[in-house]
Automatic annotation (TrEMBL):
<protein>
    <submittedName>
        <fullName>Mariner Mos1 transposase</fullName>
    </submittedName>
</protein>
<feature type="domain" description="Mos1 transposase HTH">
    <location>
        <begin position="1"/>
        <end position="46"/>
    </location>
</feature>
<dbReference type="InterPro" id="IPR041426">
    <property type="entry name" value="Mos1_HTH"/>
</dbReference>
<dbReference type="Pfam" id="PF17906">
    <property type="entry name" value="HTH_48"/>
</dbReference>
<dbReference type="GO" id="GO:0003676">
    <property type="term" value="F:nucleic acid binding"/>
</dbReference>
<dbReference type="InterPro" id="IPR052709">
    <property type="entry name" value="Transposase-MT_Hybrid"/>
</dbReference>
<dbReference type="InterPro" id="IPR036397">
    <property type="entry name" value="RNaseH_sf"/>
</dbReference>
Amino acid sequence: FRSLIKHYFLRGKTAKETKEKLDKYYVANTPSDYTVKYWFREFRGGRNSTTDEVRSGRASDAVTEENVKKIHEMVLADRKVKVRELADATKISTERTRHILGEILHKKKIFFIPKEIIFLHDNAPSHTAKPVRDTLKALNWEVLAHAAYSPDLAPSDYHLFASMGHALAERRFASYEDVKKWLDEWFVAKGEDFYWRDIYKLPERWEKCVTSNEAYFE
């Protein structure tokens, strides 16, 4: 889409006109208003390349007060802004962008809904049946590849059950009611951040699983 934005820019179109044309001809997954305006500003400033510039991946360079503030403002302006768009605007990696969203802004109760949806399931027959595949295709959701029988990618396995297992070590129950009572209290006692950490670890875990050729890892 960047090349198309540049094409319309060179033809003298406005950012608004460009956004309307992209929505008309491409419909799905078009860049947001902010992204179109961002690239128009870049081209007006003399930028010619549409490729990503070198981004900072070091926390000390990326997680700055300026970047946190800019991402905060963008999220407040558009709750459906994409992580990639935030990374483009701040010129930092998507990994650091997710860190700012999950570890810093989340603690300030700043929430956002990504425009694109990436769906992960565990390859169970009920999840891979044709009606499910057809529905996912109709919704235009991207399906994230999942290694067969891999607990490395299931948040319930690598985070939830692992933590629960430590809490259950050497514990004995006399009845089903005792088990249920303990579980209810355990779930309630876990703070909201506990479950968010579960989700925000997923991109890193998925990348590790891919680079390890789907082998198990700690």
